[in-house]
Amino acid sequence: MYPSQFRYHRPSTLTEAFQLAAKLDGQVKFLAGGHSLIPMMKLRLAAPDHLIDLSGIDELKGIRVDQHISIGAMTTHWQVQSSQLLRERHPVISKVGGVIADPLVRNRGTIGGSLSHADPSADYPALMLALQGKMRCRDQGGEREVSADDWFLGLMTTVLREGEILTGVRIALPPPGFGAGYAKHLHPASRFALAGVAVALTLEPDGRCTAARVGLTGLAITAARAEVLEHALTGVQLNAKVVDDAANYVVDGVDVGGGFQVGLEDKCDLFRATARVAIRDAVKAAAPSYFADGFYPGDIRAVDIEGIGPLRNHVNQG
Ligand SMILES: Cc1cc2nc3c(=O)[nH]c(=O)nc-3n(C[C@H](O)[C@H](O)[C@H](O)COP(=O)(O)OP(=O)(O)OC[C@H]3O[C@@H](n4cnc5c(N)ncnc54)[C@H](O)[C@@H]3O)c2cc1C
User: Rounded mean pLDDT of the chain?
Assistant: First the structure.
């Protein structure tokens, strides 16, 4: 299929992009990596009159660490995946960049495009919920920052206003005792998440959890928090048995969507298994010595827990 006719524009500054958007007649869409927008245009699910390509705007690119981690909206998945800075300062972010789709998509797709598009099975949305990320948006009237909790409104719908550009995301640096994990059971063809769970924990050295945030993708019509699971993890000492039990709550209280490629019960089971992997990875990152010495109670052998190996293999692909 071919898209309907459109005019293409490539500004080199944000100011120029806003001026263009304000003066053009008809529907205007911003183009980032094009890996969601172009397919939609080819299917005629989107038919903008004008495309404003953001790829020439340098101020939207790059990864910076000062008091926070700032990632420009036009930073590609590959740049996130391969960033040494992120690997050292907040490894789960680069890990998630690396499990998106395949190298072709990762080379062009952007974090800003993914968060603006808000596909219900995309990976960054769940991560942003777990990490309490902030989205920075700008239009001609000025700048605002929106927390991930307030960002997603409905199916592929965010609070972004007409003519507003997501300029980047801001994520707090991990506090002491922090650890995060992301596990994903991917669709074998598209590699979108059939079940994706992002977990951010803060642990005492003895494994007691003082804070937990869990973001899910692939379950509801938007990325969603697993608040019942967060509650089950908070205030208790996490060991393999506690984590297994708590993971059973991952879908509880979530407004589950529909139209899945697997049955609802299988979907929920997939989430429970995926949650176990993600929580365990977060515990390991937060309290490595505790994970090595105290996480597995005497009556549970590590091998039992590792029995969900195929999931881990999926996660590590990419
Ligand atoms: C085969 C395939 C497999 C995929 N698998 C996965 C996967 O496993 N996990 C996953 O998370 N994603 C997956 N994706 C989606 C991919 O990550 C896209 O790159 C992403 O969803 C959109 O980013 P983009 O930069 O390509 O944005 P575009 O397609 O250019 O734009 C998407 C939408 O966001 C708007 N937009 C883009 N940037 C901005 C901005 N800065 N400000 C305001 N609006 C903006 C556009 O106007 C458009 O409406 C897959 C895509 C394909 C084609």
Answer: 92
Ligand 1 center–CA 74 separation, angstroms: 11
Give the residue among 234, 259, 232 at the shortest CA–CA distance from 244: 232
Q: Closest Cα to residue 122, out of 168, 186, 69?
A: 186
Which amino acid appears at position 15 of this protein? T
User: Sign (positive/negative) of CA torsion 76, 15, 39, 156?
Assistant: positive
CA of 287 to the centre of ligand 1 (A): 34
299 — pLDDT class (breaks 50, 70, 90): low
User: What's the maximum distance between 2 C-alpha atoms anywhere in the chain?
Assistant: 69
Residues 6+ apart with CB under 8 A from 229: 212, 214, 246, 247, 249, 250, 252, 275
| 193 CA → ligand 1 middle, Å | 14
Give me the mean pLDDT over the 183-207 stretch: 94
Atom of ligand 1 lying closest to residue 29 CA: 47
| Residue 33 CA to ligand 1 centre (angstroms) | 7
Name residues contacting ligand 1 (CB within 6 A).
29-37, 39, 54, 73, 100-101, 105, 109-110, 112-114, 116-117, 119, 122-124, 160, 165-166, 190-192
Taking CA atoms, 158 is separated from 164, 254, 265, in Å, by: 11, 19, 29
Run of H or E including 153: strand 152-154
CA atoms of 255 and 155, how far apart (whole Å): 13
Q: Which residues contact 115 (CB under 8 A, 6 or more apart)?
A: 73, 124, 125, 128, 135, 151, 158, 166, 169
Place of tokens 């902030």: 134
User: pLDDT tens digit string along 197-214?
Assistant: 999 999 999 999 999 999
